Amino acid sequence: MSERTGFAKGKIHDVTVRPLAKYLDERGWLAELFRSDETDPQTMPAMAYLSMTQPGVARGPHEHVDQTDWFCFIGPANFKVYLWDARRDSPTFGIRQTIYAGVDAPLAVIVPPGVVHAYKNIGTVDGIVFNAPNRLYAGEGKKSPVDEIRHEEVEGSPFCLD
């Protein structure tokens, strides 16, 4: 375990990392982000959104109580994805994992509830991230509390980005 964070390096149980194949032709490329016939019904997306992150900027760290995030990193930038297993009942509790994804390594990263996560644009251009969580943001009609525990500004947080 790292003295600074309390988390050891490793792979986190229940986090899925899938390569995203780009199918090229004379028009450009296409990538399948998810398919219902290849998806666990519990992680089936309920909504989808895109975000743009500027070079050198991070989003997170935060976690969800019930929500699974289905991130897709395609480009045009590269991202460093940070994961910490904070689930006390997980066989990989206390493990941190780092993944590089984006234009150089198109990936889908499926993050289950209780895994603290963040990503940082390590490229030189604005980066686009697709997310298809299995829960609606703020619930049906945006009338419920947001399922998010934020750690970005917590003094002494073990969830440090380098």
What is the name of the CATH architecture? Sandwich
CATH topology: Jelly Rolls
Report helical residue fraction.
under 10%
Which class of secondary structure composition applies to the elements? mainly beta
Low-confidence stretches: none
Number of helices: 0
Determine the CATH superfamily: Jelly Rolls
Instruction: Supply the CATH class.
Output: Mainly Beta
Major beta sheet, strand line-up: 1-9-8-11-6-13
Indicate the overall shape: globular
Percentage of residues in DSSP E strands: 35-45%
Can you summarize the main beta sheet?
6 strands, mixed
Indicate the mean pLDDT.
95
Number of E-type strands: 13
From N to C, what is the helix and strand string?
EEEEEEEEEEEEE
Note down, in words, how this protein is organized:
- By secondary structure, the chain is an all-beta fold.
- The chain has one domain (8-149): Jelly Rolls.
- Helix content is 0%, strand content 40%.
- It has no helices and 13 strands.
- It has strands at 8-9, 16-19, 23-25, 28-30, 49-53, 58-63, 69-75, 78-85, 95-102, 107-111, 115-121, 127-131, 149-150.
- It has a 6-stranded mixed β-sheet with strand order 1-9-8-11-6-13, with no helix packed on it. Strands 2-10-7-12-5 form a 5-stranded antiparallel β-sheet, with no helix packed on it. It has a two-stranded antiparallel sheet with strand order 3-4.
- Strand 3 and strand 4 form a beta hairpin.
- It is globular and about 50 Å long.
- The mean pLDDT is 95.
